[in-house]
Amino acid sequence: LHPWRPAIIFGFGLLHGLGFASVLTAYGLPDGAVLPALLGFNVGVELGQLLCIAVAFIIVVSAIRLSEDGKTNKTAAWVYMAIAVLVVPLAIIPVSAMGPDAVEAYLPLMFMVAALSGLCAASCAVERFETYRHMVAMPASIGIALIGAYWVVERVFL
Fold first, then answer.
1. How far apart are CA 60 and CA 135, in angstroms?
2. Per residue in 86-106, pLDDT tens?
3. Which of 94, 107, 117, 143 could in theory staple to 83 by disulfide, Cβ–Cβ 3.0 to 4.6 A?
4. Sign of the CA dihedral 13, 142, 101, 89?
5. Could you tell me the CA-to-CA distances from 148 to 4, 12, 44, 70, 105 in Å, in that order?
6. From the centroid of its chain, how far is CA 23?
7. Is 1 inside any structural domain?
8. If you average pLDDT over residues 41-67, what whole number do you get?
9. What is the rounded CA–CA span in Å between residue 156 and residue 143?
10. What CA dihedral angle connects 109, 114, 117 and 122, to 10 degrees?
11. Which residues constitute the domain of residue 114?
């Protein structure tokens, strides 16, 4: 652990908390039940984050293992591409039955699953050590940072 990481983590956590506090303020908190409302909201957010991490881990676990061996696996690459190109778009069909709001809510998640699967496909197709780090982890981290920067600009300046 680098000495600067706790400060970065603290800063992001503080911004994260302030963002959620502004959302709660906009919705209003029930009188006399501020603490249970905040705790319930926080637990829900944390469970949502754990679910996202679990889904991402399930997607990338094969690419991580192959990257450690430095070998290619064309079958895994094709499976990842099938997820990106076929499964994710087909998953939108049942979501669309829930209405346009559901599609709007789930579309960014579906895009991220497709993008992550595509990056994993590329990682599985290249024979080199640490392909996961170079072809999945770094681009995905840059994508997350760009989304975070967009949200900061949107919420602060727009």
1. 11
2. 988 888 888 888 888 888 878
3. 117
4. negative
5. 20, 10, 20, 32, 17
6. 20
7. no
8. 82
9. 20
10. -140
11. 9-157
2 falls within a domain: no
- Contacts of residue 139, defined as CB under 8 A and 6 or more positions apart, other chains included, come to 119
pLDDT tens string 11-22: 777 777 767 766
User: Tokens in use for 26?
Assistant: 């906009």
Transcribe 3-44 into DSSP letters.
TTHHHHHHHHHHHHHHHHHHHHHHH---TT-HHHHHHHHHHH
Which residue reads 């989304």 in tokens? 147
Asked whether residue 3 is domain-assigned, the answer is: no
Structure tokens at 88: 């994710």
pTM of the model: 0.68
Tokens of 86: 């076929």
